[in-house]
Amino acid sequence: MSSALNKGNLVGGSWISRFLDEIGDSTGNVDMVGNYSSNPLDFKYTVPEGKLLYVYSLTVTIEDNGSLDAGSYGNGIALTNGLKFGILTRSGEIVSATIQKPITTNASWATYAHDLVVHDFGSGNNTLTIRYLFERDGIPIKVASGQSLAIQLNDNFSGLRGHLCKFGGILVPR
Question: In what order do the strands lie in the sheet with 148-153?
């Protein structure tokens, strides 16, 4: 727990770990493989009314066949718009942590998260995992009730074999 975060804020809180999904309530599709170039889509978790969410970590998994290149997304996918992550407001606007530079390549994840590991199993698909620990940037992300932690996709990700995003945090009464 960060010394910057008042421990009293977490009284009555509970640990939460969920995949971001298309609906935002942990009941929707969690696999972010698809073509979102014409219709951007937000994968999200919406904080219930009367709660606050402190997000400590974000883990992204990208699975594809063949080698995963630094200069593309997955194995050879070229992203035009890139993906953004941040807080989705009640009005539907994303307050992006990636506003200056959307993520367009495997390597660009390291700019934000640093912890990036390529898993090459010798046969079958290769996997890239990215772990972003927000306390390393200062403090956990605070998401208010009615807002969402979100990843916004606006390109064609249909060539991937798997694409998931999971967060970990503490959900507290407001």
Answer: 41-46, 148-153, 84-88, 94-96
d(CA 47, CA 170): 11
Residues 152, 41 contacting (CB under 8 angstroms): yes
For CA atoms 158, 39, 93, 143, the dihedral sign is: negative
Q: What is the pTM of this model?
A: 0.90
157-167 pLDDT per residue, tens: 999 999 999 99
Sign, Cα dihedral of 128, 20, 23, 17: positive
Range 5-26 burial, b when 16+ CB lie within 10 A, else e: beeeeeeebeebebbbbeebee
- Pull the structure tokens for residue 43: 């994968």
- Asked if residues 63 and 130 have their Cβ atoms less than 8 Å apart, the reply is no
Can you list the residues of the chain whose pLDDT is less than 50? Answer: 1-4
Strands, E, within the chain: which ranges? 14-19, 41-46, 51-64, 84-88, 94-96, 115-119, 126-133, 141-144, 148-153, 162-173
